[in-house]
Batch of 2 targets.
Target 1
Amino acid sequence: MPHVVALYRYPVKGFTPESLDALTVQTDGRIAGDRVLAFRFAAAATPEDRDGLDYWPKSKGLALESFPGLAALRLAYDDATARVRIEHDGKTLVEGGLDEDGRAAITEAVTAFVLSSPEGKRLARPGRLPLTLVGDGVRSRFQDRSRGYVSVHSRASVGALSAALRQTIDDRRFRSNVVIDGVEAWGELSWEGEVRIGDVRLAAAGPIVRCLATHANPDSGARDAKVLTTLTGRLGQREPTLGRLLILPGASGTVGDGSGIGGTIRVADEVVIG
């Protein structure tokens, strides 16, 4: 029987995940605490950003696609106290709240880290500095798409990719919320209709076309696996695809929309298709 084997949320867009035993699917179709913060480039400070977009293109700020060294950081977010802690090499790099002083300290530490990384020159380009830590820590508004979604992939698909690459590939490269086992490789790409995970009823949406973020080792940040060309070359895909999106029926996907019926997904929950 297909079932959940791992759950992740990403409090700060482009940074490392938190592994959890349970995730809450909100009534807008987004995961609670997922992509609630982001580091914005200076040139991206448009009126729309200040008023609140329902999505966040990677080009607006720090993202693993262009700054793979971010994978070497370990991030934790405490919802109750709205505090961010970032570690590097087992030591606390910075910890702070979302007040003005806390945001300034977090931003200063992250800026210094990225500037000292191999991608530092990219951050120093015109229009990128100073960075600003944006988001209220509550609204999940920094996804790549305007509609809220839950992302999922199977262990078998990652296993097939590992075999094609002749190296072990970690699930975390694909930044999914839900990882499942008990289905055939690439089986999730053929799902149609309802997908029920535990008591949460979702609907299959589009497949996930991957980007260079998947080339980054989730521990070191080194680009050590040619995922994209392996998917389109050795595995014969038209586009580099792994995993798919699930949406919440009835929800428009707008941040804060309460028209859907969410719920809680837990590790070991059964996954029922159709």
Target 2
Amino acid sequence: MIPEIGQFALTLAFAIALVQSVLPILGAARGNHLWMQSARISAIAQLLFIGVAFAALMRSFLVSDFTVANVVENSHSLKPMLFKIAGTWGSHEGSLLLWVLILAVFGAGVSLFGSNIPDSLKARTLSVQAWISTGFLSFLLLTSNPFERVFPPPLDGNDLNPLLQDVGLAMHPPLLYGGYVGFSIVFSFAVAALIEGRVDAAWARWVRPWTLAAWMSLTAGIALGSWWAYYELGWGGWWFWDPVENVSFMPWLMGTALLHSAIVTEKRDAFKSWTILLAILTFSLSLLGTFVVRSGLLTSVHAFAVDPERGLYILGLLGLSIGGSLTLFAWRAPVLEDGGLFTPISREGGLIINNLLLAAATATVLMGTLYPLFAEAVAGEKISVGPPFFDAAFVPMMLPLLVMTGIGPFLSWKRADLGAVFQRLRFVALLAGLAALVAWYVAAGGPALAYLTFAIAAWLLFSVLREWAGRIRLFDVPFAEAMRRARNLPRAAHGMALAHAGLAIAVFGFVGSTAWKSEVVVFVQPGTTVAIAGFDVRFDGVERLQGPNYFADRGTLSVGQNGAAVTKLYPERRSYPVAQSSTTESAIRSTLAGDLYASISRPALEAAADQGAWTLRILYEPLVGFIWVGAILLVLGGGISLSDRRLRVGAPRRAVVTAPQPTPAE
């Protein structure tokens, strides 16, 4: 009965979305206040019914209701409770239901917290949001019913993909979708502004919090996914340049450009058309990612390789959304006159460079991701575009971006004195050079590009500290006065400094774990000792353990350094009988300097396996932990900025300009 309630709730949500997609926008066109106000009620009602449907599906997983096909395919009675919950969004149907739930959350958020947004703009925005909901709810009901029954029901389920039975990946999809789908409301604001024919500083102020919230969620989702890949897949890497990773990275790059462009629109009433275009493109890339992972175009540990006919449905939605919004942009953008004149050497000019580099980087990743798919579809050739291409094409564009990120906050609006800026940054440049020399002394080897990148990351970090210290006049006034100025500084300023510092710290991790890592892969038997990066690692053997829905072969490694015991590591190889698959559980000793990383697997050679040997993979990853420390600082910086009263409350209502009344003649 509960699944039928969920199905009925989805149907009602679809009906409400249809009404919301038409009535409020007609009310805005006709000036009918009651019709415009209906958007508020319908957005909340839509969230309520989709929430009921999601709760019904989750309940089916929690009680192991094997009369529901989705539960049969993605759960098992012995699975731990956390992964039963995660199984709710571990399939195509369940993840799509989570997609529309988050879509409804953002729509209801604007309805509840957008009291200072003009009624006409809010009505148009919520109608556009309902257009998106209508498309995906219809897709869910017609092709991907999560409540489909199976008869006769089996005694137990097929279990969730073992690779997905992990705490990190349990939280990865909700965070990632919070970013993907969160940009939908920014897209809706952009389309509503085009229909209304008006973009100004107030519009940018209303859009910024939603952009920042989506960007934070997407950042956290990508970082969590890279952390999962690092410790779960057993190969010691944190980024594959996998197509599915790329389709989440592209909206992040474009969303970062949008975030900075919206600041210029708010502060200087400039970049109006460009900001609107970025909002459209960012969500379009999110839709593209949804199409790629659900169309059967590729096979990936992240992808839902489903029936290609479903992909055609999403392709139609993609064409309508992107084609329709870009057509509207081409028609209406000329009426959005830009204001705020500025010289090339100014903060506006720096942000233009920032935007262009991010857009070019996005185009590079897009080409590298889609070209193999087009080549296979057109010519039947299988072409692999992997890390060598992306490293050669993407990284060089990021280095000038990091340099500009350090310079930008020192530039003034409208016109800046570049000589004065460099005068203030001369000590920062010296510290960056010293940091590169220290890295060269410690690493004693590696590519020259690694030291250049390390120096640029240090430049960014020290320039952030210099700019923040300059704002509070640290060392120029008594310390108590500097702290008072720090307390009075807008939270957005603290958040910007923290986020930029997080980016610099993450780059330290990228460089260290890529350029200076050590790796050893050997066959081992009990008593074998392996030397790596100054450590001596002894393989003590393997024991068999029983888990709730798996059994594991757990190895024991004794780690020593300079004759002294350091720690023990316990890598595992788990086998899941129901799913008939196995996973690698790595063991990691993490320090600030780097990670000692170990994983074990059965050797491919039968002779070695018969002799009781195991394949042991050991890596030393310098500074790799800086990647996730930097990601945490990025999200924390975004959160502090979002807590700024100016963003939390939003802009005041637009002033209503009335024509002056003629003075009666005396």
